[in-house]
Amino acid sequence: MAVADHIMPAATQTQGDRAPLARRLFWALSVLLAGISLFSLTYGASDTSLLAALGDWVQGRELSLRDRVVLFDIRMPRLVMGVLVGAGLAVSGAVLQGLFRNPLADPALIGVSSGASLGAICAIVLGGYLPARMADFLGYYTVPAAAFIGAWAATMVLYRVSTRRGRTSVATMLLAGIALGAMTNAMAGMLIFIADDAQLRDLTFWSLGSLGGATWSKVFAAGPMIVLLLLAAPLLSTGLNGLALGEAAAGHLGIPVQRVKNLSILGVAALTGAAVAISGGIGFVGIVVPHLLRLVIGPDHRFLLPNAALLGASLLLLADVISRTMVAPAELPIGIITAVIGAPFFLWILLRRRGILDM
Amino acid sequence: MLIAKDIGVRLGDNQVLRDLTFTARPGELTAIVGPNGSGKTTLLRALTGDVEFDGAISLSRHDIRTTPPWKLAATRGVLPQSTPMAFPFTVLEVVRLGLIAGIGADRAALPHRALAAVDLAGFEGRFYQELSGGEQQRVQLARVLCQIWEPVVAGEPRWLFLDEPVASLDIGHQLTVMQLAHDYAKAGGGVVAVMHDLNLTAMFADSVALIHNGALVRQDTPAKVFNDHDLSVAYGCALRVNETPVFDSTFLLPHTASTGPGPAHRP
């Protein structure tokens, strides 16, 4: 030990400092996301290729109507939606885990997504009963707004139930999530009973979670909210870092604990609500992405949140490519792909760190 | 100056502290001692604003109830009894959390100096969860030191609140940490520590508050507070205080204690 200290004093200085690595990873993931985006535009059930289309455009040839529709009205909105939803779910997972001080908190697992789904379902089925003026005012935003309210209510209930005197019991949190999920399923079931045929089709889509049916209007309904929240999320990082020490210790570091908690809950509800409103309950992105990143760059939220946005977007796009090419021309709901990958991953975390449940 | 006047704390149906008055001066190490359940930690939590209390507490003339958290964080650090952490932080990352509130000059080097001060130089890259309880406690102390490294800033003392800082440490590191707290006080800062070990308290404290059943028995120098009568009443067993011939400090041995009624001890 003494010898090592003597030879490498410089190495000791940087040991345990993962900030430079996290900064490099940010650029690497940006490149990865750009690459996957291009791939996603090029590869699909139809043989339309972005590169070929670009080539045509450079040579001044007119793009065929079919290619234009495939590229700009089918693949492009789907790409943008995948990026928004993937980034949104991964970041809400990371914030939720920071808030609950536990790596097992995932919007889909603990019922936040169920709450959002219930809100969205209510808006679809009961939207016709809204006063006309209000329906006009909300327009495209009716479903996202209802999903936000549902997600917010679910998060508040969860936090109230599972947190006593500043300590969150994970077992309680997961069990409360099960109860919330069951309750929202039951209420959704009742609503489905009174839904008409068109509404029914919309509803089945929620239970599976899918990027299919992506349109520019959906992107514009939820996109601004998601982008705004993704840009604002890093403002919470110092507060969430402090919360890792516990609420009292965070307060002693000068962190306005109550405000950080309230903003986190609102932010997670809005992000999850917006993402669920356009894509349904896609699970496990929020748990897999932050966990993988923490293994590499550590839990510092200043780096975790931006990297989670990039990796979440990349992985969801990749899952989407798989979902629409594996059984082409049909497509698998993307929720199935993320669950097939995510569920064993969740079990793996449990196996490695059983102690987590006792915290 | 830390002044707590007529402090009362209720937790649920229990009146844990009653009309307790306590003071601590900068430049001194003030210890809070008493048997289990006497209200030591509750008093510290009232002093740091973690529990609701009746009465008034002021730190350097600021009412702690109305001073915003960031302002308090700039002048005082608090070390809890233990700090479990959910995520895999490295030791360096934990210590750097202290910089969130800190206004220290040399932010890059400070965590390393703080770790060296608690005898953990070279532990920067280790994972917090993989350390022993005593090592974790010293990492947290380094974090708190990072927050308030300079004992005096702009003529105002800064404060260190320690909840049983040496409870999980070996005897060598108990002395390291007590010496560190003592030096912080001697450099002009204020230190308030909940202590279990009466001998270490006698060695290092300038002032001791003895608490029994949520009330103050007496606050004075260790030599005055540690007398056979007060200690025996508070701790419920006959204790005999001795004096070391060399170091001029009181000490007591468990060997000389005997409980009154109850299970018989060896004569």
CATH topology of chain B: Rossmann fold
Class derived from helix and strand content of chain B:
alpha/beta
How is the largest sheet of chain B built, in terms of strand order? Answer: 6-9-10-3-11-12
What portion of residues of chain A belong to β-strands?
Answer: under 5%
Q: Proportion of β residues of chain B?
A: 25-35%
Q: Find the count of extended strands of chain A (DSSP E, 2+ residues).
A: 2
| CATH second-level architecture of chain A | Orthogonal Bundle
**Largest sheet features of chain B:** 6 strands, mixed
**Shape designation of chain B:** globular
The CA-CA distance between the termini of chain A, in Å, is 35 Å
Instruction: Identify the strand order in the major beta sheet of chain A.
Output: 1-2
Radius of gyration of chain B: 19 Å
Output the helix-strand order of chain A.
Answer: HHHHHHHHEEHHHHHHHHH
- CATH class of chain A, named Mainly Alpha
* Major sheet characteristics of chain A: 2 strands, antiparallel
Mean pLDDT of chain B: 89
Low-confidence stretches of chain B: 260-267
Write the CATH homologous superfamily of chain B: P-loop containing nucleotide triphosphate hydrolases
Description:
The complex is a heterodimer of chains A (359) and B (267). Chain A has 359 residues and is mainly α. Chain A has one domain: Orthogonal Bundle (ABC transporter involved in vitamin B12 uptake, BtuC). Chain A contains 17 helices and two strands. A two-stranded antiparallel ribbon of chain A has the order 1-2. In chain A, strand 1 and strand 2 form a beta hairpin. Chain A is globular, with a radius of gyration of 22 Å. Chain A starts with a helix and ends in a 7-residue tail after the last helix. Chain B has 267 residues and is an alpha/beta fold. Chain B has one domain: P-loop containing nucleotide triphosphate hydrolases (Rossmann fold, 3-Layer(aba) Sandwich). Helices cover 30% and strands 26% of the residues of chain B. Chain B has a six-stranded mixed β-sheet with strand order 6-9-10-3-11-12, sandwiched between helices. Chain B has a four-stranded antiparallel β-sheet with strand order 2-1-4-5, covered by helices on one side. The longest helix of chain B is centred in the last third of the chain and has 16 residues. Chain B is globular and about 50 Å long.
